[in-house]
Specification:
single chain; 205 residues; mainly alpha; Tetracycline Repressor, domain 2; 11 helices
C-alpha cells in the first residue's frame, strides 16, 4: 500500500470530526436547535470530549464560521490560480461560488444562520470574509480599467453576482415551479445559462 493510500485511510482527528459535524448541524438544523449532547451522540463521543476541543457551544460556532470562510477562500484561490486573465477570471469566481453552494449547502446555511443570530456574529463573519471582498473589489476595478467589465460600483456588482449565483444554484422550489426537473443535466444547463446572463449584464460594450 503506498503512502497516499495510507494517508487517505487515516481517520480524521476528533477536533476535525466535531467541526465537520457542527458545520452540518448549524447549517441545516440551526444553531439554537443543535445541542452539544446531540452532536456528541451523532459522533459517538461524549459531550466532555466536545468541550475538551471547544470549551463552549459559542466557541464551536466561532470555529465553524472560520472554517466556512476559509473553505470559500481556498475554493476561490484555486479557481483564480487556474484562470486566464480577463473575463475568464470572472467566470472562474462564479464557477467556484456555484460549485461551493451546490456541494456544501450546509456551509451556505451556516452563513445564513450566523446573520440571523444577531449583529455581533454577523460582524464577526463580515470580518472573516473582508479580505475576500477586498481582493474581489480590486479585481473588478482592474477589469473595469482594462475595459473588460462595464464601469459601475464594484461592491454592488459583487452583491448582484453573488445573490444571482447563489439563488440560481439553491432555489430548488423555483426550479420545480417552472418545470425544470432536478437532475445533473438541469444543473449544468442552469450554470451555463446563468454565466451567459451575468456576462451579458457585466461585460463592457
Amino acid at each position: 500500500m503506498d503512502g497516499a493510500t495510507t494517508d487517505r485511510a487515516k481517520p480524521k482527528p476528533t477536533a476535525e470530526r466535531i467541526l465537520d459535524a457542527a458545520v452540518d448541524a448549524f447549517g441545516s438544523r440551526g444553531y439554537e436547535a443543535t445541542s452539544l449532547d446531540a452532536l456528541a451522540a451523532e459522533l459517538g463521543i461524549t459531550k466532555q470530549a466536545v468541550l475538551y476541543w471547544f470549551p463552549s457551544k459559542e466557541a464551536l460556532l466561532d470555529a465553524a464560521i472560520e472554517r466556512g470562510a476559509g473553505e470559500l477562500a481556498v475554493a476561490l484561490d484555486r479557481a483564480l490560480a487556474q484562470a486566464e486573465p480577463g473575463f475568464a477570471r470572472f467566470d472562474a469566481v462564479m464557477g467556484a461560488v456555484f460549485r461551493f453552494v451546490v456541494r456544501r449547502p450546509s456551509l451556505l446555511g451556516l452563513l445564513r444562520e450566523v446573520n440571523r443570530l444577531g449583529p455581533e456574529l454577523a460582524a464577526d463573519l463580515a470580518q472573516q470574509v473582508q479580505p475576500l471582498v477586498d481582493r474581489a473589489v480590486v479585481f473588478v476595478e482592474r477589469e473595469m480599467d482594462a475595459g473588460t467589465i462595464r464601469r459601475c460600483d464594484p461592491r454592488l456588482l459583487l452583491v448582484f453576482v453573488y445573490a444571482t449565483v447563489v439563488g440560481v444554484a439553491t432555489e430548488a422550489e423555483a426550479q420545480r415551479a417552472v418545470g425544470l426537473p432536478a437532475s445533473t443535466a438541469t444543473l449544468a444547463r442552469l450554470r451555463r445559462e446563468l454565466f451567459a446572463f451575468v456576462r451579458a449584464a457585466a461585460i463592457a460594450r
